Fold each of these.
Amino acid sequence: MLSRLSPRLLSSSPRLLSSSIRTLVNVTYPSPSVAVLELDRPPVNSLSLEMATSITSHIKQIESDPQIRSLILTSSNPKIFSAGLDITEMSRPSKTRLSTFWRSIQSLFLTLYSTRLSTISCITGHSPAGGCLLSMSCDYRVMSRNPKLGIGLNETRLGIAAPFWLKDLFVKTVGYREAELGLSRGKLYSPEEALKIGLVDEIVDGEVYDVAVERAEEYAEIPEKGIVATKRMCRGELVRDLEGKIEEDVGWFTDFILEEGTQKGIEGYLKSLSKK
Ligand SMILES: CCCCC/C=C\C/C=C\CC/C=C/CC(=O)SCCNC(=O)CCNC(=O)[C@H](O)C(C)(C)COP(=O)(O)OP(=O)(O)OC[C@H]1O[C@@H](n2cnc3c(N)ncnc32)[C@H](O)[C@@H]1OP(=O)(O)O
């Protein structure tokens, strides 16, 4: 029923939907050419299989409306953009669920990174690991100036490594040496530090959402043909690299996660999170 509605009517607020069909995101339209996709999976917007699948299918629905030119990705939680992958998906999982989960993450990345829409990440809160992946997949990133916030790839801190395509995305964003340092140290950057290395494009003292809408409208004024061709030129290589290695990447991920040593690391990390 829901999928037959026009994307414009698809404001999937939890207030309107029963929990059984909750879509984990809210979609709104601040202007005729701009859509906002708000992550809404309390407590920390972590990316479970269902969450990743929902975001991907909403991006595709929004994309199918030719009037919409820009998409803002943001969070219903003012303190947390996204805590990244749902770590519980990687803790003692079945191999089948784990590979389906990883496919949903690959698909979310490919969809967001190569969409015809101009994408603005509106980062009001923490954005570690998979949260940083979502932000880096967008065309432009605005972040609140709050020095307590962190953005970056902290996988090594969990005893895991970023997959090759996330490493490549990071290298493309911040350059080789900074990426190597940031990845191996599992560094989370403050907004000021992130701005300095090009991990975010702008930091905002006041209402970051208003700035994101302004930028989305600016992008929407640029002729679509030029912007889509440019995006394809800049991003095509990484998209093709991953598309050509989907199965290999699923194999690496499942083997790596299912190793006993990795499982112990994940268990310990989960404990440390819930003890806080
Ligand atoms: C050479 C071969 C290479 C092969 C490579 C192949 C494959 C690659 C292998 C692996 C790649 C996998 C990539 C992973 C990327 C990821 O995204 S991993 C996730 C990383 N995320 C984090 O580390 C963030 C952890 N969370 C936090 O730091 C904090 O929660 C926060 C976001 C800063 C918020 O803090 P706050 O104090 O507000 O909240 P709490 O910490 O109290 O959390 C509330 C609640 O939520 C639970 N939780 C937090 N984060 C997650 C999460 N990511 N997943 C699941 N659950 C999470 C937390 O445990 C609390 O739960 P509660 O105690 O039950 O209330």
Amino acid sequence: MTSSADPTSETRLPLEDYKRYGRQMILDGFGQLKLQQASVVVVGAGGLGCPALQYLAAAGVGTIGIIDHDTVELSNLQRQILHTEARIGIPKALSAAEAIKQINSHTRVQPVIEALTPANAAALLAPYDLILDCTDNLPVRYLLSDVAIGLGRPLVSGAAQQLDGQLCTYNLPLASGSGTGGRGPCFRCLFPRPPAPDMVGSCEELGVLGAVTGVIGNLQALEAIKIITGLHGECAYSTSIRAQLMTLVDGRPSLLMYSALAMPPFRSVKLRARRPTCAACGDEGQRIGGIEEIDYVAFCGGQRTDWEAKGLVEGGGSVTRRIRAKALKTILESEKSVRILDVRPRTEFGICHLPGSINIPIKDLVANPSAHLPSDMSSVGEAHKELDTYVICRLGNDSQLAVDALRSAGVKGNVKDLVGGLRAWAREVDESFPVY
Ligand SMILES: Nc1ncnc2c1ncn2[C@@H]1O[C@H](COP(=O)(O)OP(=O)(O)OP(=O)(O)O)[C@@H](O)[C@H]1O
Ligand SMILES: [Zn+2]
């Protein structure tokens, strides 16, 4: 009998593993033992983390860490496929751990119910060979990139929103002689400055299709498996995955972009080499300093409080320009004629809307306010036409922009927007109104 299916390994796999993993072990150059000896940490057990965890566990990664502070909600189940109706309300890290143990009872699963922060990141991530960024926000993306450099770990980063996604591996060890300083670029090399906060939206605000996060999460697991097993390039077989990572990877990293409706749906952009002046990984230039001291949220332009971000409070706007749901209800129940302008996209208006409301999507309204107004609103100044107007949207942010646009177009009369949007309407006035 031969000593092992992995010709260079010193240790043998348990007998049943030949059966379990045989389909992948016969792939050219595949190192099952390396997967078993590897440890991978997945930060975020949401839309990307769930599919990634599922494939990592099924493929036989020996140790898997799961870091997430959040709990399972009903709105997660459309895409966060490891969680179930029965586990709503329990921490995602525990729910995902339970699910992957059912797939592979041999996996050592290490759930951590904590948010990754500058203070705890290095300690939480250090035990692992490889890091997967499956989170959904920019401050954590920068934090993970900086910590990955400090620890010398590759960082497989995914992002998905609406029908699009991106995949990129940062700090990837390159084959010697590639002239790129031994490692691929970090996130800061490519994005030294974060985009303006207004350019960044969440899945809650912009939407996302579950199968799209599935595509990117799967690709993250695949990248991790390629790096660990040596499929990424010429591999000097070693029982120590960390030692191996220093030498094995061949080829330049690239950014993979996926767009479900495009043809072809995948595009790949070769990344520039590591920037010598990068504040995080560069040899020259200013260094970022101690990670624990960095305020990543402020670096990314600050963060509106949750309440403000969700449009539930007045924010900077004047109170006289806004109305609360209960007050709007009283007005609608009175004899007074008013105009309700709903500025959500047409698809959302089609899902549900208030009776008698008119739909003018915010994009159309802002692009050319006077061209898209209801006909009686464009003839400004005629007293009898000056109906009171109430502008509504989903969360109460776009409606504020719409009021500004209407005023700048010269619309007079009483124009207010609904604080908290239709979300507040459902909560405060009509519980039967759909929340989405
Ligand atoms: N600093 C962090 N540490 C650990 N986990 C994080 C951190 N920041 C974000 N996450 C997690 O990353 C995951 C991102 O997944 P996703 O966006 O699909 O979920 P979500 O935030 O529940 O979605 P939704 O926007 O619909 O509420 C979430 O589970 C979130 O809790
Ligand atoms: Zn860098």
